[in-house]
Fold these 3 entries.
Entry 1:
Amino acid sequence: MKFYVETFGCQMNVADSQEMGRRLRGRGFSPTAVAAEADVILVNTCTVRQHAEHKALSYLGRLAGWKTSSVKRCLILAGCAAERIKDTVQRRFPQVSVVVGAKSIAQFDEILDAALPDLGYDAPRESLDAWGWMEGADEAHPDDSVTAFVTLMRGCNFSCSYCIVPAVRGRESYRPAAGLLAEVSAKALRGQSEVLLLGQTVNSYRPALPNPAPGGRDVADFADLLRAVGNLPGVRRVRFMSPHPFYVNDRFIAALAETPTICPHLHLPVQSGSDAVLGRMRRNYSRGEYLAKAAALRRAVPGMSLTTDFIVGFPGETEADFAETLSLSREADFDGAYCFKYSPRPGTGAAALPDDVSTEVKEERLARLLEETEARSRLKAQSLVGTVHEVLIEAVRTEGGIYRLEGRTAHNRKLFVEGAVPAPGTYIRARVSAADGKTLLGTPCEAACLS
């Protein structure tokens, strides 16, 4: 019996897919990279933006023929879009066998228990906790990525007016630290030395005490967790996505500065540079507060790479508001930015506001913002030519008989190296020889070379 997973959306969705995959493995299913070979196909969806949802549902529609070719085939629709449209799924997509909304992923075992016997599957399952982690300190089936994706919380307690996440994922629930640290430790010792901690507002993590970490100290908040994860044997790099500016405080900043394994890169969404727009977005911070926190982070971690998200054309955004966004981009000196045009999402607070910025104006503002942020990112990449970096190899490719290694620096910049063929998951030192736009090109560096 085989299963195939198609994932749309963010790293949280990737982690959720891995979690559900573990549960299918625990029932005797083996993964396949070929959808046509699968007995079970899991489509994990995103609904944060309309385009992402349309792409996932279009893929789902194309699976109708696959499903009807065998009565035993099982098509599972999961994730955020599944949560949003779960009441209409069977009418729109009769080929779907099982619906697992984002709020129900923790109950995936029970959902499978109810559904699979009716489809002819009645395999016993291994014991997993509510977060999809097998009991004990090890896991039988490694994930494919060189990076260990580890979910530490679900949901969001904020109510940003443009965001659908609280509606489809619910309020925050925190994973106990002991099980989380056991998972990180097992994955690190198995070879996944880079850890990516995931949560909707990851730095709001505050589990109920007691929550002991190795050494006997309780994990009371995200700062404690970062220190505990960063000091586990086998952990070489720690990353996390996505922190909220509201929870960037002195304890958080100190943990970044004092834990050498935490990567010097932070993706800290700002969304707008205008206090008026931030207020309508319900972001819970001001322009000045964001800039002060960005400056404090850079003082504490010299050379930190700071990236962000922007939304242009939010309801009521004036040209003066947009000028504030452009000026904040320059003042914060971002290393990179993801920039988006606002589009209303049903079920959000902003959907009730008049979408009063025209498409033409949104596109013009987006182009100006991209010109600003991408030019800065290219200049920063160019400034790295001649410097030496530790690179985690993520993939090995061949181009015209030449091996090309694709890796990532601690500052989260892509770096391509031509040379020897280390396996993905290994580290090399490389000197940046050129910058192609925002991407770095490099050459392997002898052990004696200096950074």
Entry 2:
Amino acid sequence: MEASGNKKIRYPESELVLGGKNIIYHLGISPQDIAPSILLVGDQDRVALISNYFDSVRHRSQHREFVIHTGTYKGKEISVVSTGIGTDNIDIVINELDALFNIDLIHRVNKEKHTPLKLVRIGTCGILQPHIPVHSFIISKNALGFDNVAHFYQLNFSASEKQTEDEMRHHLQLPSAIQPYFTSSSETLLKELSSEETFSGITVTSSGFYGPQGRTLRIPLSTYQLNEKLESFKSSDGSKIVNFEMETSAFYALGKALGHDCLTICLGVANRAKQEFSDNYHPHMERLIQYVLERI
């Protein structure tokens, strides 16, 4: 579903917040500073790690946790944006990236022509299937959101998404206060980035790293054998839950609603089923970065 609305309605100063003339508030950049092909990363340091592969870099900025580099790779213009951790930051980043391309920030109205963005998130994740090795490349074909971000928007989920969501609710038997939603990646980007090197399936996006991902230290959990239930789930179309992370559900739900192509590809740094964690994932992350750059 692509965002719509009356193009002549002016967005008030309190709703479309700017940090200066033509500068979007949180990201701290103007439209000319960003390219329509964008790599999203959680870690600020990963921005320079990626832009080091660029032929040239024409823009560098940092505002809060949002580091942004824009340059060219093999003649194609690409931006890299750090989002920080969590779906709350994704809500900010996706809305503001869209505004930079699709809202006239001077006159505060929607532009006549919609600009679709290509958005690829490169992250790390915990693996939920014992057969997937640590350091694997894992593509989020779909995402189950344990966060609430999508519930604040009027979104149209497909019939197949709603069916899988119902199947998962029945299987997981979550506390009533947890209301998950199910969404999907871009088919175009899925084809571009899938290969024999990748695993794919359903990603669970949680709203935290400890309890929401089934980890317990000193506070007891309200969920029972959450990871075991996630590992054993299989949808009617044969899909399985492959990993845990903290951004993709909101990324997909909001990105699609705004008319953009979105995909997450993660490096598995822990296998939760086998209780294994990478002793050094950094060279494997560099390999993943090169893999993505060559395919977008």
Entry 3:
Amino acid sequence: MKLETKKIVVMGLGYIGLPTASLLATKGHQVLGVDVNSQAVATISKGEIHIIEPGLDILVKSAVLSGNLRASLTPEEAEVFIIAVPTPFKDDHVPDISYVEAATRAIAPLLVAGNLIILESTSPVGTTERIRSILAEERPELFNGKGPKQAASIYIAHCPERVLPGQILNELITNDRIIGGVDQPSRERTAEFYRSFVNGKVLVTDARTAEMAKLTENSFRDVNIAFANELSLICDHLSINVWDLIELANRHPRVNILQPGPGVGGHCIAVDPWFVVASAPNESRLIRTAREVNDAKPHWVLDKVKAKSGRFKAPVIGCLGLAFKANIDDLRESPAMEITRDLIKAGVGRVMACEPNVHGSFEEFPLYELGEVVQEADILLLLVDHEEFQGVDRELLKEKVVIDTKGAWR
């Protein structure tokens, strides 16, 4: 199904908003991307990108040169508004939906009857209803009747993003999408919109179920990673190679244990389970425990490094990888970043960090080339299994203390 060309505003030009805006622009829609980051807006306006994602540079350049994609600090009137802003949590793991609320209030004065408002940000249960409440307060003339189920002349829905960094442009089109409308007309209108550019199935439900579905997907992953990480602690205690153990256990036809690592990062898996815990603290005991296991893993790695550093008077510690997963530049909630920062603060030795996917804009601490780190380090700490690290000559590792948190050099 192909819809007529629409004017679309995308609020937030990060890892989801910018690819979405660019994709829709190349489909012929007139798209305005909005962000509070003036540098990001200026960069995109030149047809360039401020984040790294395979193929995104070409897509953005094409979309901008076509005239279908513009970037701005402020929204304009449109037919479709997509909210793709951050949804972090506060220090006490309470969800912070202030960015969603701010984006909603920013578009409220621009709305007219027939507009479609879609929340793509992964959000705690009830956030889409919160958007509806804000709009009902700001623009009561767009709503008929009274109460939470009042009819409206605008359409409001949640369609959570469910893409993998490094595969975003492909998965935006091929993945199934879940549509959760605040009412039946909103579900139908939103499903019609996504079917115009998504090849995967478009699955329709209510807003709360759609919100919980995304949180469930990431909590499932987190719980299973926690099992693997806990196994790594047990195996270390019992002098067993965890990588060999998992490989053998996975030979069972109904066992598929994931791989352990230095923790869990990224905006989704490291954050979303806490949204579930905050919504139902007494009922989410397993999900909470899994989060605590994964959050504790970086501290365990740090203790291992400190214990090994006692062999040297002034050790050089090479930290390989800062991103939250392999072959990307995304540092959000990265356990590798946490470990590297803590090592620098602890003053255990001289820390040399290498992250081949980050270029130019990183200023928190010096970055070094891989060869230089491998040559100078007394302790090599492999935190991310980037492809560049896989090919390190094993002969160079023989005189080093190696702490491989990913099993890439076993």
